[in-house]
Sequence to fold (642 residues):
Amino acid sequence: MKLIINIAESLLLARWRQTLVAAIGVTFSITMFITLLSFMTGLNDLLDSLIVNRTPHVRLYNEIKPSKDQPITKTVEYKDYYNFIHSVKTSGSRQELYNSGAIMQSIQKDDRVLGLAPRVAAQVFFNDGTIDITGVINGVDVQAENKLFHFNEYVVGGNYIDLKNVANSIILGKALAQKLLVNIGDVVQITTSKGEIFPLKVVGFFQSGINDIDKVQSYASITTVQKLLGQSNSYITDIQVKLKDITEAPAIAKEWAVLYGCDAEDIQTANSQFETGNFIRSLISYVVGVVLLIVAGFGIYNILNMMIYEKMDSIAILKATGFSGGDVKYIFIFIALSIGLFGGVTGLILGYVLSAIINQIPFVTAALPTITTYPINYNPLFYIIGISFSIITTYFAGWFPARKASKVDPVIIIRGK
Amino acid sequence: MSIILQARHINKSFHDPITVPVLKDVTFSIEKGEFVSIVGKSGCGKSTLLYVLSTMDTDYEGELEVDGELMTGKKAQKLAQVRNEKIGFVFQFHYLLNEFSVLRNVMLPGLKLNKYTEKEVEQRAMERLAMLGIEDLATKMVNQLSGGQKQRVAIARALINDPHIIMGDEPTGNLDKKNSEIVFDIFKTLSEKYQQTLLIVTHDPEFAHRTKRIIEMEDGRIIRQ
Fold:
């Protein structure tokens, strides 16, 4: 065995330029694989985070809708009939979640849950001189919101925590603030749907990346909004829950809708277009990854194949002087594996360096105020796949021609001269 | 005298593109210490016969014995071992490995045999190079040598494992007069001084006439031996 490694080493080093070219072929493929996949999944994760970071996995609320049980369906004699009712009106149900405190306690205890954030939504008018601009104020628990939905990442001016610390404060959508011509520290007048006028102090701006949202949304603390609406401090209209495993959301939403007697919406239903987009993007990543690997594999195979065919003479000599087919095979597999390992490791390093460089390229987008450079996903899995792949392909790329070489009669090569 | 090589009723045909018989019922034997040459016109099958005898070509009918052991039907692994241990080769072209030094080339079959330590193999390789008068070339790379020198290195390599028989396929075919003479003298010395068995294929009648025994071939048959 030592002799075989020794011979392989000599064969490799004697034509070091050729060896280098073969190794560079492997290196290039693996570098491209690592870089492209890191970059693509990095971008993907970025797009995912656009939605996932700020969307609850399950949202509990009360929808304004007509009652499902109209009196006639409850009548025993007409129960099994088809009943057609025209002009059904929604009942005067409240948007408040009943018994919200108990619900929150119970959800908090569920160990599938990462965390929850209560909300109160209020429709208001922002008074700008003689014009009223419609808008929504979300009353949020600032700390919970920040922990679960990265609230601070979207606050572009001011400090998000002031929302909690400053009484009667508001963070306006950037587009809305521009419309109202206000700056941080200014006071905006709002009129509630019940006609009461409140002054609120602007402590910051937020930018969600979707201009339509920024034109109408704004945030205040829960107590401020409860005050605006003239409700008690148990008044909650939404409970937003983040789960440990996002895929469980639809099942849990169904379970809770029954359990707590309210509406529950899961992220997959609320953002089905996002789900589709996400699926397609992942699909593209995987396809590109697989194609890259296949192309790389053929490249590696070709290079090694040629390298081994070039050494057919040496094979014939070795066999004539008493080396068996097996010895010849091991020599070439060893050559192939050293190229694969060397090229692969270099490829991983270069791939890492290249992705690190991409990670430094400026990338400014209004949609994501916190992102300043192109995103890269440094997933160790890519590196593991990369190195395993380079070793496995070089092994087979060496194995097939080596097997052929091991079987060939040396006479055929010698006579061929 | 013991028989080193025994061929019985060897038949062989090439099948591509049409079946052409190249060896027809070849039977002969070589005893220990003989210096034999096979002569014949180009295409008479003498090289083909040598490859069959060398165990490298296994596609034939008939029986082949080396050192009293039947080679026909043996596995490739076993044949490689026999070639390594019992047969030494010298080809028309030197067929040394360009990737290695002269010494390493001579040593390789010895290292493969794994009978001696690396140090001992090196010692033996140097002895053989010295015997052929080329010990000063030991550290050179193969491509720095002349044709005659290469052929002598190839002979040293053939000798490394003390083979029972040395086979040569036109070993002087590619050399000029002077180098041919040197190579022939080496063979002669090996034969006379060391009782080395030699089987040389050649088309050079002068070379053949100076050997002890001539096997003449024509159209795949032995016509005189």
Remarks:
- The longest strand of chain A covers residues 113-128.
- The longest helix of chain A spans residues 272-310.
- The radius of gyration of chain A is 33 Å.
